[in-house]
Amino acid sequence: MHMQLVVAVFAVYLTAAYSQWPDELSRKSQDSVKYEPTWESLDKRPNPEWYDDSKFGIFIHWGVFSVPALVSEWFWYTWKTGNKQAQDFMRTNYPPDFTYGDFAKDFHASFFDPVHWAKVFESSGAKYVVLTSKHHEGYTMWPSKYSFNWNSMDVGPNRDLVGEFATAIKNQTKLKFGLYHSMFEWFHPLYLEDKANGYRTRNFPDAKALPELYEIVRTYEPEVIWSDGEWEASSTYWNSTGFIAWLFNESPVKDTVVTNDRWGNETRCKHGSFLTCEDSFDPGQLLPKKWENCLTVDMYSWGYRRDMVVENLRTAAELIEALTRAVSCGGNLLLNIGPTSDGTIASIFQERLYQMGSWLDVNGEAIYATKPWIHQNDTVNPHVWYTQSKKTGLVYAIYLQPAKKNITLGAPKFSKLTTVKVLGGPGVLKWTLDEQGNTVVKLPPRDELDDTTVWSVVLVLDNLKNKPSEAPPRITMSMLPQVRSMWRDENPHKQTRKA
Ligand SMILES: *[C@@H]1O[C@H](CO)[C@@H](O)[C@H](O)[C@H]1NC(C)=O
Ligand SMILES: *[C@@H]1O[C@H](CO)[C@@H](O)[C@H](O)[C@H]1NC(C)=O
Ligand SMILES: *[C@@H]1O[C@H](CO)[C@@H](O)[C@H](O)[C@H]1NC(C)=O
Ligand SMILES: *[C@@H]1O[C@H](CO)[C@@H](O)[C@H](O)[C@H]1NC(C)=O
Ligand SMILES: *[C@@H]1O[C@H](CO)[C@@H](O)[C@H](O)[C@H]1NC(C)=O
């Protein structure tokens, strides 16, 4: 055990020492590390490089809740706990003895074309996908041995939805495949019994949650395990560290998999390969550990809602802003859409994803395989966020407003050798200093700029004089619980229809 610890510490040292370490070296040091089923040991595992380099993934909330497609993916729970819209809907449209389980036979997925989904997600510029394999309703989207008659093969589509989607992603795209999995189930009798016992019994995790996790990893080899539904009980109840130690030491994806932080009521914003803290998490500052903002296009739901209107959707500009802010601060963006029970993706969601793709086609070099710069945001211009290429060291200033005549920057210190270019625009740009000593970069006329500059302008800066010592104060892991998300719940750009 002592020996293993030394090896683990050495591996961490190597990760710190080389930003791009030779493949051979990383594989060797990885092979010799055995992680203990403790958070202390599991947190020492270096993340596989692909996850940090990807920056952008697609989250897909799909399940039996897509059949009522009302209120949110929490429909069952809200119906049973007094939500008026859910109760009125059920009273008006269904007989009194209708159960939530009865919705499953109407989950047809008749138009589910996994190859089309794969192409849409690839066109968005995302580098990974995360599908709900099982939400809090307990219905498994694969033919699980542990969910008899409450899975997508036995009732509903009569198809292995997870398997078909996994094959399409793996065969047709370069995207990484990931799965969401809910630990608890609102109404599972074994879970409710453990809960009534104050979680002193562990029948539900042993008979259901854990066997399912091993089953999906062995069958579909997902490279992201996005856990959720953990918050009512400790990670000891769930035996999360036992599972993750297996995932990192022995599973078929041990070298490439990443997991989030939702593994028990004491683990969020602390443990795992990356932190999610809360939904729509946007700290607005550099965090001491890799993190991810999971954000849904429909502001009010993760699952599809039939009564969704366009004013409920985040705009392309807002989504580009969320991605930029996350990447500048060491995070990724996991952007969610909810497909219909027919298996289609609403055209408005497809359009948002294509808009992200068109922006990334032009501006992706400021996002993918970048790292946080010395400054995350500008000192005088509230619309500018920075990233830096891992490979070339070039600094990107991402101005999150439509192109104007010029852009003022306070943080970068220009040298005589500094040149400024704009992505999707011509040549080298002129710049001057204003009376305050800030740099004013002159932009070419709009007709010489790419169309994506209606959302943002990305400047490329080289040969700057900035020194790492001028970095603003950084927060530490122990300060993390105090960090609040800055993402606005109210949409300030809410589209209003003009007469
Ligand atoms: C996926 O690709 C593998 C390897 O090329 C092939 O054997 C398999 O038949 C493909 N599956 C589908 C469903 O296309
Ligand atoms: C976490 O869950 C355990 C049961 O597993 C419970 O005893 C404990 O009080 C919970 N802690 C918090 C902070 O809610
Ligand atoms: C937790 O999981 C590990 C790995 O599967 C296993 O060895 C251990 O016995 C489990 N612990 C409990 C309390 O079930
Ligand atoms: C950005 O930077 C300024 C100072 O340079 C700081 O006061 C501000 O809080 C930062 N964060 C955000 C989210 O604007
Ligand atoms: C920048 O553009 C604004 C108008 O958008 C103009 O008033 C200002 O003089 C310009 N500054 C410089 C230094 O060109």
TrEMBL record:
Recorded GO CC terms: lysosome
Domain Alpha-L-fucosidase C-terminal residues, every copy: 376-455
Gene3D superfamilies found in the cross-reference section: Glycosidases, Golgi alpha-mannosidase II
Catalyzed reactions: a neolactoside IV(2)-alpha-Fuc-nLc4Cer(d18:1(4E)) + H2O = a neolactoside nLc4Cer(d18:1(4E)) + L-fucose; a neolactoside IV(2)-alpha-Fuc-nLc4Cer(d18:0) + H2O = a neolactoside nLc4Cer(d18:0) + L-fucose
Enzyme type, top EC level: hydrolase
Keyword Ion transport: no
Matching PROSITE patterns: ALPHA_L_FUCOSIDASE
GO terms classed as biological process: fucose metabolic process; glycoside catabolic process
SUPFAM superfamilies named among the record's database cross-references: (Trans)glycosidases
Glycoside hydrolase family 29 N-terminal domain residues: 28-365
InterPro entries: FUC_metazoa-typ, Fucosidase_C, GH, Glyco_hydro_29, Glyco_hydro_29_CS, Glyco_hydro_29_N, Glyco_hydro_b
Signal peptide start-end: 1-19
GO molecular function, one term: alpha-L-fucosidase activity
Assigned keywords, A-Z: Glycoprotein, Glycosidase, Hydrolase, Signal
Domain of life: Eukaryota
The enzyme's E.C. designation: 3.2.1.51
Function field: Alpha-L-fucosidase is responsible for hydrolyzing the alpha-1,6-linked fucose joined to the reducing-end N-acetylglucosamine of the carbohydrate moieties of glycoproteins.
Family in the record: Belongs to the glycosyl hydrolase 29 family.
Name this polypeptide is given: Putative alpha-L-fucosidase
Source organism of this protein record: Ramazzottius varieornatus (Water bear)
